[in-house]
Amino acid sequence: MSHHLRTAARLGAPLGAAALLTLGLAGSASAHVTITPSDTAAGAYAILTVSNPHGCEGSPTTKVTIQMPEEINAVTPTRNPLYDVTKTVEKLDTPVKDAHGNEITERVGTVVYTAKTPLLDGYRDAFDLSLQLPDTPGETLVFPIIQTCETGESAWVEVPAEGQDPEELERPAPTVTITEATGDEHGAGAEESAAEADGAEAASPAADSDDDGGSDGLAYAGLGAGVLGILVGGAALARGRRTS
Ligand SMILES: [Cu+2]
Protein backbone atom coordinates (compact mmCIF):
# COMPACT_ATOMS: atom_id res chain seq x y z
CA MET A 1 0.00 0.00 0.00
CA SER A 2 1.55 3.33 -1.05
CA HIS A 3 2.73 5.86 1.54
CA HIS A 4 -0.14 8.33 1.21
CA LEU A 5 -2.76 5.60 1.16
CA ARG A 6 -1.19 4.30 4.43
CA THR A 7 -1.29 7.91 5.67
CA ALA A 8 -4.90 8.17 4.54
CA ALA A 9 -5.72 4.92 6.33
CA ARG A 10 -3.97 6.13 9.52
CA LEU A 11 -5.17 9.74 9.42
CA GLY A 12 -8.54 9.02 8.08
CA ALA A 13 -9.52 5.70 9.62
CA PRO A 14 -13.13 6.80 10.18
CA LEU A 15 -13.23 7.84 6.56
CA GLY A 16 -13.93 4.29 5.29
CA ALA A 17 -13.20 2.53 2.07
CA ALA A 18 -14.99 5.16 -0.10
CA ALA A 19 -12.26 7.71 0.69
CA LEU A 20 -9.46 5.29 -0.25
CA LEU A 21 -11.33 4.42 -3.42
CA THR A 22 -11.77 8.08 -4.31
CA LEU A 23 -8.07 8.68 -3.85
CA GLY A 24 -7.21 6.17 -6.53
CA LEU A 25 -9.76 7.52 -9.04
CA ALA A 26 -9.26 11.23 -8.52
CA GLY A 27 -8.60 13.30 -11.65
CA SER A 28 -6.62 16.50 -11.27
CA ALA A 29 -8.81 19.55 -10.80
CA SER A 30 -8.19 23.25 -11.13
CA ALA A 31 -8.22 24.33 -7.48
CA HIS A 32 -8.27 21.97 -4.55
CA VAL A 33 -9.60 22.14 -1.02
CA THR A 34 -7.04 24.39 0.64
CA ILE A 35 -6.37 26.28 3.87
CA THR A 36 -5.19 29.91 3.91
CA PRO A 37 -3.86 31.06 7.29
CA SER A 38 -4.10 34.71 8.40
CA ASP A 39 -0.87 34.14 10.30
CA THR A 40 1.66 31.29 10.58
CA ALA A 41 3.80 32.52 13.47
CA ALA A 42 4.38 30.03 16.29
CA GLY A 43 1.93 30.66 19.11
CA ALA A 44 -0.10 33.22 17.16
CA TYR A 45 -3.87 33.37 17.16
CA ALA A 46 -4.81 32.84 13.54
CA ILE A 47 -7.83 32.46 11.28
CA LEU A 48 -7.52 29.47 8.99
CA THR A 49 -9.79 29.80 5.95
CA VAL A 50 -10.81 26.43 4.53
CA SER A 51 -11.76 26.84 0.87
CA ASN A 52 -13.98 24.36 -0.95
CA PRO A 53 -13.91 25.44 -4.62
CA HIS A 54 -15.62 22.56 -6.41
CA GLY A 55 -17.69 19.41 -6.02
CA CYS A 56 -16.68 15.76 -6.16
CA GLU A 57 -16.21 15.07 -9.87
CA GLY A 58 -19.08 17.52 -10.50
CA SER A 59 -21.38 16.30 -7.73
CA PRO A 60 -22.63 18.96 -5.27
CA THR A 61 -21.00 19.09 -1.82
CA THR A 62 -23.20 18.21 1.15
CA LYS A 63 -20.69 18.09 4.02
CA VAL A 64 -17.09 19.09 4.80
CA THR A 65 -15.35 17.26 7.66
CA ILE A 66 -12.12 18.91 8.83
CA GLN A 67 -9.84 16.74 10.98
CA MET A 68 -7.77 18.81 13.39
CA PRO A 69 -4.06 17.98 13.67
CA GLU A 70 -3.03 16.53 17.03
CA GLU A 71 -0.93 19.63 17.75
CA ILE A 72 -4.12 21.70 18.07
CA ASN A 73 -6.59 21.00 20.86
CA ALA A 74 -8.96 23.95 20.72
CA VAL A 75 -10.66 25.60 17.73
CA THR A 76 -13.47 28.09 17.33
CA PRO A 77 -15.30 27.53 14.03
CA THR A 78 -17.01 30.51 12.44
CA ARG A 79 -20.75 30.03 11.91
CA ASN A 80 -22.00 29.98 8.34
CA PRO A 81 -25.70 30.61 7.63
CA LEU A 82 -25.70 28.01 4.83
CA TYR A 83 -24.33 25.24 7.05
CA ASP A 84 -24.82 23.58 10.40
CA VAL A 85 -21.45 23.45 12.13
CA THR A 86 -20.56 20.93 14.80
CA LYS A 87 -17.41 19.87 16.64
CA THR A 88 -16.55 16.37 17.75
CA VAL A 89 -14.73 16.30 21.05
CA GLU A 90 -12.39 13.52 22.10
CA LYS A 91 -10.67 12.71 25.39
CA LEU A 92 -6.94 13.43 25.62
CA ASP A 93 -4.80 10.46 26.65
CA THR A 94 -2.92 12.77 29.00
CA PRO A 95 -4.28 16.15 30.12
CA VAL A 96 -2.29 19.17 28.91
CA LYS A 97 -2.12 22.83 29.87
CA ASP A 98 -3.44 25.48 27.50
CA ALA A 99 -1.73 28.83 26.80
CA HIS A 100 -3.27 30.24 29.99
CA GLY A 101 -2.13 27.39 32.20
CA ASN A 102 -5.57 25.79 32.43
CA GLU A 103 -5.57 22.01 32.41
CA ILE A 104 -7.54 20.56 29.49
CA THR A 105 -8.60 16.91 29.27
CA GLU A 106 -10.32 16.85 25.89
CA ARG A 107 -9.72 18.22 22.42
CA VAL A 108 -11.66 19.01 19.29
CA GLY A 109 -11.12 16.11 16.88
CA THR A 110 -13.11 17.32 13.88
CA VAL A 111 -15.13 20.30 12.77
CA VAL A 112 -18.05 19.39 10.49
CA TYR A 113 -19.89 21.81 8.19
CA THR A 114 -23.11 20.23 6.91
CA ALA A 115 -24.76 22.09 4.05
CA LYS A 116 -28.41 23.06 4.48
CA THR A 117 -28.63 23.02 0.69
CA PRO A 118 -25.92 21.28 -1.34
CA LEU A 119 -23.14 23.47 -2.75
CA LEU A 120 -23.36 23.11 -6.51
CA ASP A 121 -20.20 22.35 -8.48
CA GLY A 122 -18.81 25.57 -9.94
CA TYR A 123 -19.50 27.48 -6.72
CA ARG A 124 -17.19 27.96 -3.76
CA ASP A 125 -17.72 28.10 -0.01
CA ALA A 126 -15.20 28.93 2.71
CA PHE A 127 -15.06 28.23 6.43
CA ASP A 128 -13.05 30.21 8.99
CA LEU A 129 -11.47 28.47 11.96
CA SER A 130 -10.09 30.60 14.78
CA LEU A 131 -7.33 28.96 16.82
CA GLN A 132 -3.94 29.37 18.40
CA LEU A 133 -1.05 27.90 16.47
CA PRO A 134 1.32 25.61 18.40
CA ASP A 135 4.70 26.93 19.44
CA THR A 136 6.51 24.62 17.00
CA PRO A 137 8.27 26.73 14.33
CA GLY A 138 9.14 24.74 11.21
CA GLU A 139 6.48 22.10 11.80
CA THR A 140 3.89 21.41 9.11
CA LEU A 141 0.38 20.77 10.40
CA VAL A 142 -1.78 18.45 8.29
CA PHE A 143 -5.57 18.97 8.10
CA PRO A 144 -7.15 15.91 6.45
CA ILE A 145 -10.50 16.96 5.00
CA ILE A 146 -13.36 14.78 3.76
CA GLN A 147 -15.62 16.41 1.23
CA THR A 148 -18.89 14.48 1.10
CA CYS A 149 -21.02 14.95 -1.99
CA GLU A 150 -24.41 13.85 -3.24
CA THR A 151 -22.49 11.21 -5.17
CA GLY A 152 -19.28 9.96 -3.62
CA GLU A 153 -16.74 11.85 -1.56
CA SER A 154 -13.28 13.31 -1.99
CA ALA A 155 -10.68 12.59 0.68
CA TRP A 156 -8.16 15.42 0.84
CA VAL A 157 -5.83 13.39 3.02
CA GLU A 158 -2.71 12.71 0.99
CA VAL A 159 0.63 13.68 2.48
CA PRO A 160 3.72 13.82 0.24
CA ALA A 161 6.40 11.19 0.81
CA GLU A 162 9.82 12.44 1.81
CA GLY A 163 11.06 14.62 -1.09
CA GLN A 164 7.91 14.13 -3.12
CA ASP A 165 6.47 17.20 -4.86
CA PRO A 166 3.05 17.86 -3.30
CA GLU A 167 1.86 18.99 -6.72
CA GLU A 168 1.98 15.34 -7.77
CA LEU A 169 -0.69 14.41 -5.28
CA GLU A 170 -4.27 13.97 -6.47
CA ARG A 171 -5.96 14.89 -3.22
CA PRO A 172 -3.38 16.62 -1.02
CA ALA A 173 -4.36 17.25 2.60
CA PRO A 174 -4.22 21.02 3.26
CA THR A 175 -1.28 21.99 5.42
CA VAL A 176 -0.04 24.97 7.41
CA THR A 177 3.68 25.35 8.10
CA ILE A 178 4.48 27.14 11.33
CA THR A 179 7.02 29.96 11.10
CA GLU A 180 9.19 31.63 13.72
CA ALA A 181 7.35 33.54 16.43
CA THR A 182 7.22 37.26 15.76
CA GLY A 183 6.87 38.28 19.40
CA ASP A 184 3.56 39.80 18.40
CA GLU A 185 1.39 36.79 19.29
CA HIS A 186 -1.99 37.69 20.74
CA GLY A 187 -1.55 41.09 19.00
CA ALA A 188 0.57 42.10 22.02
CA GLY A 189 2.81 44.37 19.91
CA ALA A 190 -0.17 46.32 18.64
CA GLU A 191 -1.50 46.89 22.17
CA GLU A 192 1.93 47.78 23.53
CA SER A 193 2.57 50.30 20.79
CA ALA A 194 -0.92 51.69 21.37
CA ALA A 195 -0.17 51.96 25.12
CA GLU A 196 3.23 53.54 24.39
CA ALA A 197 1.60 56.07 22.04
CA ASP A 198 -0.94 56.91 24.78
CA GLY A 199 1.82 57.14 27.39
CA ALA A 200 4.00 59.40 25.17
CA GLU A 201 1.01 61.59 24.53
CA ALA A 202 0.17 61.73 28.25
CA ALA A 203 3.76 62.54 29.11
CA SER A 204 4.15 65.15 26.46
CA PRO A 205 1.14 67.39 26.98
CA ALA A 206 3.43 69.53 29.11
CA ALA A 207 5.80 69.72 26.17
CA ASP A 208 2.95 70.78 23.98
CA SER A 209 1.89 73.40 26.51
CA ASP A 210 5.49 74.48 26.84
CA ASP A 211 5.10 75.66 23.33
CA ASP A 212 2.32 77.90 24.66
CA GLY A 213 4.05 79.32 27.79
CA GLY A 214 4.52 76.31 30.19
CA SER A 215 1.75 76.89 32.75
CA ASP A 216 0.72 73.25 32.82
CA GLY A 217 4.23 72.25 33.88
CA LEU A 218 3.87 74.36 36.98
CA ALA A 219 0.47 72.88 37.65
CA TYR A 220 1.96 69.39 37.59
CA ALA A 221 4.80 70.48 39.88
CA GLY A 222 2.26 71.94 42.30
CA LEU A 223 0.20 68.79 42.14
CA GLY A 224 3.31 66.74 42.89
CA ALA A 225 4.16 68.88 45.88
CA GLY A 226 0.61 68.64 47.13
CA VAL A 227 0.65 64.87 46.92
CA LEU A 228 4.01 64.76 48.66
CA GLY A 229 2.61 67.00 51.37
CA ILE A 230 -0.31 64.67 51.94
CA LEU A 231 2.02 61.67 52.17
CA VAL A 232 4.25 63.40 54.71
CA GLY A 233 1.18 64.55 56.61
CA GLY A 234 -0.25 61.06 56.48
CA ALA A 235 2.96 59.54 57.82
CA ALA A 236 3.01 62.07 60.62
CA LEU A 237 -0.63 61.25 61.31
CA ALA A 238 0.13 57.58 61.58
CA ARG A 239 3.18 58.29 63.79
CA GLY A 240 1.11 60.63 66.06
CA ARG A 241 -1.56 57.88 66.50
CA ARG A 242 1.05 55.32 67.48
CA THR A 243 2.57 57.45 70.25
CA SER A 244 -0.75 58.57 71.73
CU1 LIG B 1 -9.42 20.33 -6.93
Task: Explain this structure.
This protein is 29% helix and 31% strand. It has 244 residues and is an alpha+beta fold. The protein folds into two domains: 3-177, Sandwich (Immunoglobulin-like); 187-244. Strand 9 (145-149) and strand 10 form a beta hairpin. The longest helix has 29 residues, at 215-243. The chain starts with a helix and ends with a helix. Residues 1-15, 19-26 and 205-211 have low confidence and may be disordered.
Low-pLDDT regions = 1-15, 19-26, 205-211
Give me the strand/helix succession: HHEEEEEEEEEEEHHH
What's the domain count? 2
Structural class: alpha+beta
- Helix content percent band: 25-40%
Number of helices: 5
The coarse silhouette is: globular
CATH topology of the largest domain: Immunoglobulin-like
List the helices and strands and how they pair.
Elements: H1 3-11, H2 17-25, E1 34-37, E2 45-52, E3 61-67, E4 76-77, E5 83-97, E6 103-119, E7 125-132, E8 140-142, E9 145-149, E10 153-156, E11 175-177, H3 188-203, H4 205-211, H5 215-243
Antiparallel strand pairs: 1-2, 2-7, 3-6, 3-9, 4-7, 5-6, 8-11, 9-10
This protein binds copper (II) ion.
Residues 29, 31-32, 54 line the site of copper (II) ion.
Comma- or semicolon-separated keywords:
244 residues; alpha+beta; Immunoglobulin-like; 2 domains; 4-stranded antiparallel beta sheet; 5 helices; 11 strands; globular; disordered N terminus
